[in-house]
Amino acid sequence: MNDPITLNGVSLTAPTVRRQEEILTPQALDFVKALHRATATRRQELLQQRQARRTQISNGADPTFLPETRRIREDDSWQVAPTAPGLEDRRVEITGPVDRKMTINALNSGAKVWLADMEDSSTPSWANVINGQLNLRDALDRRIDFTSPEGKDYTLQGSSLTDLPTIVVRPRGWHLPEKHMLVDNTPIAGGIVDFGLYFFHNAQRLISQGRGPYFYLPKIENHLEARLWNDIFILAQDLLGIPQGTIRATVLIETITAAFEMEEILYELRDHAAGLNAGRWDYIFSVIKNFRTRGPRFVLPDRNLVTMTAPFMRSYTEQLVRACHRRGAHAIGGMAAFIPNRKDAAANDVAMEKVRADKTREAGDGFDGSWVAHPDLVPVAMEVFDGVLGQNPNQLDRSREDVSPNAKALLDIAATPGVITETGIRSNIEVGIRYIESWLRGNGAAAINNLMEDAATAEISRSQIWQWIHASAVTDEGEIITHQWVEELVDEEFAALQRFDGDRFDDARELFEEVACGEHFPTFLTVPAYARFLHETQELAAV
After folding, report:
1. Does CATH place domain 419-533 in 1.20.1220.12?
2. Which of 170, 172, 270, 327 is catalytic?
3. Catalytic residue at 507?
4. pLDDT tens-digit profile of 280-294?
């Protein structure tokens, strides 16, 4: 580790990344520091409240709709802010990390929105943190290009920002620190760093080009966490003289507790709210995490059998559409994680039909748009939503009054059809280890077995293994899942991996066994991964 460099009261502990001085200006550091100091204590209190809530659920207290916020839910008069420029039509959104190639491909994809992801599909190495900010700013200034090792050139299409997908940035969740930026010897929250640097450098750039500073907010667990973000937005706009209400935020409902507070979350952010998203993969992970010790009633089958047609997932998505449209907010559907395989026509056809069926169901349910993970999926998703929306930009007029808030339905995990198989256990082990290995090398979005895996899907894989072991779950062939058996399967799956020079499989296995097979259950696998294995080096920083 290099000796820290302190600028304007912010200590930087990582080796210097090329061009970082363009992002880490004295004024930008002052701005981020102000956001940190105004919110650090509340953030820690909210993280402690998360843990207390998890303990209550683990001890048998099911989450439910909050009696203390009933007046907000029953008050029909309030609506979120009017739709902001570039967010009127969100029928297809493409997601992906903010590396240089993806930035260009996403903006050239033909989607309506690009979720520029600094969270689950991006490894938060210092190089990635800084380069992501540079790539976004370069894109807004139309000075971004990329040449692949094979010599293929990538450049932006369109003549102006309004010709391209609207950029919506997803900062890191509250649980992740940025250990390379310290104030008063305390790491700044990763989300504050991501949000603050992007907003400081680009808010005015965006406004002047007919767009605005828009964000996706991940991992929120309750309305108090949404209130903290809203207070950050107010402060950030005040500090830079940006009119209040310029920021727009779409909140991912990807935790079981947030599913019971959807309207309250919209209410807290109402002057800045754009919508809610059905973050399906993290949502499944949250269900497993919170109920992992509650017995067979909460044990799910193989990961690939937990589909959006499972009763608890249907309830979650339908209640989300209702909550959004009741308040004038957009409802955005979940990720189609299938990756087209241009070398396997048969597999490609199967994947496309699955994507088509998924998007057809979402459009039919009233969603205003949905996510895809690959540019090749944009046309099929666009075709589906075009068929439902036509010339209309959204379905806000579909109130879904046929849906009622239903706590019991949200928790009907036991009705999920399917079984646990040895193949499913092996798949979880393979995906978990391969994804962690990719993440440790700096690639947080990994194509594995024709699926785009990110931190959320890896979390499902490892948390299922942990739960199955501790619940002594039984496979379809009557095999009790034990720690010893899983370790034997880990040995076999690890031996089958294709190794290569510079791989991080040994570290990945160590971490996987800790988070999937250990006595204690880490809240997020990325926390120990980041703390222990993501060591900054001069070589990494120079990438």
Report:
1. yes
2. 170
3. no
4. 999 999 999 999 999
